[in-house]
Amino acid sequence: MTSANPVTLPLSGFTPRHFQLTVAGKVATVTLNRPEKKNPLTFESYRELTDFFLAAQKEEEVKAIVVTGAGGNFSSGGDVFEIIGPLVAMETRDLLKFTRMTGELVKTMRACPQPVIAAIDGICAGAGAIIAMASDLRLGTAETKIAFLFNRVGLAGCDMGACAMLPRIVGQGRAAELLYTGRVLRGDEAERWGFLNRLVARDGVLTEAQALAAELADGPTFANAMTKRMLEMEWAMSVEAAIEAEAVAQALCMQTEDFARAYHAFAEKRKPVFEGN
Predict the structure, then answer these.
(1) Residue 38 CB contacts under 8 Å (≥ 6 apart), including other chains
(2) Residue 115 and residue 128: Cα distance in Å, rounded?
(3) What is the CATH number for 159?
(4) What is the mean pLDDT of residues 39-62?
(5) Phi, psi at residue 59, to the nearest 5°?
(6) Which domain holds residue 232?
């Protein structure tokens, strides 16, 4: 897939200043774009990314989102001098404002109906690893280096939902190891552990992520959004409650035109063309 020039999302009017945004068809690609410093985050980029995913919740044209980094790296996390330095001088009230603000980024990523796919090459550390973790799917390379570095700067591993989400992805013991040690999880091991859905060639990770996003965007997007919502909700449900919730969700999906389209296409021995309604 070839990315289009940066554009404004059709309905939200969102124009970023602290990352690149391209839209090709029904796929938006967010590129963290400070390659000279391995794409670190700043106070401003945290807020703008949160605003973007909040806007995506109301976006009807874009059906899938890819997040990546420029220059051969995903993200080195919070900028040492633009974030960590100022945090040392803050009082508790302002520190709590900051930690709640960073958590909002994960909340908005999880709340937007579009599947979010992380295309991860090179360094993926700290808050960068959190953004990858909060994505729905993750593609990486053999050169991918994932690290939850919070303990390396004297902080707990419980940052931006890591203690809730990471064990569900890689298992409790493996998550504990990563969060206690801050060690690097390399691409091949990350795939074995289930953090990465697949490994691809370094020069193809973005292309494959965009192709996967386009495939999902061409699917039954109402149903995909329902799947994402139920994956989120059922973390806190009993099996019995989850079965009932899924019964209601699936009944709603059975009322969509896409469900009827799939049936008629099957009956006529052709591929269905989904429209997301």
Answers:
(1) 69, 71, 73, 75, 76, 122, 123
(2) 18
(3) 3.90.226.10
(4) 93
(5) -85, 125
(6) 221-267
